[in-house]
Amino acid sequence: MSWPVAARIARRELRGGLSGFRIFIACLALGVAAIAAVGTVRSAIEAGLTREGAALLGGDAEVQFTYRFARDVELEWMESIADRISEVVEFRSLAVVDRDEPERALTQVKAVDDLYPLAGTAVLDPEIPLAEAFEGDGTLPGGLMQRVLADRLGLSPGDTFRLGDQDFVLTAILERYPDNSGSGFGLGPVSLVRTEDLGQSGLLQEGTLFDTQYRLDLPEGADLAALEAEAEERFRNDGLRWRDAREGAPGISEFVERLGAFLILVGLSGLAVGGVGVSSAVRSYLAGKTEVIATLKTLGATRATVFQTYFIQIGVLTIVGLVIGLILGVGVPNLFSPLIQANLPIPAEFGIYARPLIEASLYGILAALIFTLWPLARAEEIRAATLFRDAFSGGRALPAPRYLAITAVLFALLVGAAVLFSGTVELTLITAGGIVGALIVLALAALLARRVSRGLARVSRGRPALRLALGAIGARGGETTSVVLSLGLGLTVLASVGQIDGNLRNAISTELPDVAPSYFFVDIQPDQIDGFRERLDGDPAVSRVDSAPMLRGVITQINGQPATEVAGGHWVIQGDRGITYSEELPDNTSITAGEWWPENYDGPPLMSFSADEAAEIGLQLGDTVTVNILGREFTAEIASFREVNFETAGIGFIISMSPNTLAGAPHSWISTVYAEPEAEAAILRDLADAYPNITAIRVRDAIDRVVELLGGIAAATRYGAAATLLTGFLVLIGAAAAGERTRTYESAVLKTLGASRSRILASFALRSALLGLAAGLVALAAGIAGGWAVCHFIMETSFSVVWPSAIAVIVGGVLATLLAGLLFALRPLAARPARVLRARE
Fold first, then answer.
1. Domains and CATH numbers, the chain
2. Which ranges does the record mark as transmembrane (predicted)?
């Protein structure tokens, strides 16, 4: 027989409807839908970022400098390539409101000129022109604040606030501004003012921490790539950084890409859970087709014909599941696009995108093949002579070697596709290994549970309900394996996410404050540092004050070669780094190699480099490093390596240089203050009143900001894990539905032997609860192991078991199986024994 004959038989059998395949289709559709939905949202955001690249950036291109304004030669070049140039200055400061007790809040100040914004528009409340808002009330210049900052300070339009030594009148609330997404992570809400109005504020002095951004309105058709190359060639060593509308918000784009990739890997875990349901549904369906298969073989059908017949049927149903999943995956995000866009700080352009559909389809097809090939391969082994002998549950456990080889190839293709689409090789391999490992552990746990249950059933005399439950769990061909695999894998994903999320939150919000300072003070001018220290030295509530001069510079060369060629994409050479100098070796500093420079050193420039980062880059003692500071290049020899611990939230510099190297360079000081919580307000008040130009960053506020960001990430991963768990619950329902006929027969026999309905119901409930407990315990162990591996090897944080999350996993497993089991126990309990037993024979 050939494929046409198999197709004709398959078509006739499919006319009987989808009975027995609803769970198959639901599991496959849900897994595909989750992956397609994540991919659709990611593609919508990427399309929005591409479309609004210029508005997100605030212009067609941006030239950025650290700690300084553009020099004449740089301005001349920008003027030669651009039609218009808008200057933006960004820095942190304290917004102060004078009341009986002055109130202060950290703000990200964005000082702009009259051309701002070159692209996009600012939305104000009330709706007034931006130029009018900056004019103020005739006596004071105008300023704008984001609503969260105005609410925090209790301000309304018309009220007054101060930045440094300059007063402003709040003329409007800044609802939205065009270059919001391109500014990256900020510790405080934004205040928008004109640069010229800050002239008397004392905030923009040499050495203070600020960035200047020159937004360029380029002629139509300008070659952005060529201009970027020209900027790199002309100003390679001047600290100039170029960005353009091709990637208006690179940090956000990269974050969305990585988060989307991670969520798709979580979706693959859900697809694996659904695959267990798919395999179980196929096995159950083929078990019901034993008589048909035996009859076909009696009539001369070959093994190949049997395989092809049911392969075609499964293929058709797979296509149905894929189509439903793709429709849901595209339809749900587009249906809720207004709600999603309202909660996104970045633009998104929803629609139908080919890539997520192709990706989800490929994953769905490969998963369906992997999980259906095994039972299909065993179906062809049914012999005509074994008709009516439960042939499907017998025979060898493993299919023919060729099917094992094909399964391995399919799995390799699935992993390869995941690596290709996600772009994260390490995370993908860890996820794939974790899923396979979890399935193996859960399969062994299911086998162990069956054997232990059979042993306990023999000794559970006097407890009929428990003995019946244990006997059902240990029965061959029962629902134990399906329940433990499906629910266990879903709970494993949820447990891993819960442990990772809990440990990250503990590391940030619990462990760090025990060792972190109360405040970071920045922009302390050299002539202010002595008075600053005097205020703190005599305060008994202050336990420690660390201060250091600080400049910022960009590492441009290593041993005379471009830094990017030597260090690749290492984070130390990405952007500017803090740099300090010190005559003597600072307290609590440990030299790991080399020596500190002698007192009053006046020789060639020397440098001490962080030991860990130096090892990662491959630096050696005696190597030279060139740093661009304020447009000037300084080349120093590495004289020593030292330990730098960034986990304490204290002062830590990758680079410390000999004082003679930076003599005369404009700079400011930073300081960390460790104080009793009750004294923090008084310290801030005194120092801010004495030195209005300094900026205080409360460490707790910074931690809360990071926790808030992590909360959004954790919520997204929990939704993905919840989808996996929902798939697992569907598999549970499928297993319970498949076992309903067996439970009906059991109920009939037990009633005939005198068992009451309550005892039978107790047996069913105990069976479900014990299976849920077994799945929960195994999932908890696997989830804790997975959480530890991610925290230890990827995030490099400490790990401890988060018990509330762990207990919730176990309770959830018990409740899920109990609910599914009881849901399909009602009809077996209501069945009449005589009718059931007569039909059985």
1. 1-52+248-386 (no CATH), 61-221 (no CATH), 429-516+699-841 (no CATH), 542-675 (2.40.70)
2. 21-41, 259-286, 307-332, 352-374, 403-421, 427-449, 769-795, 801-826
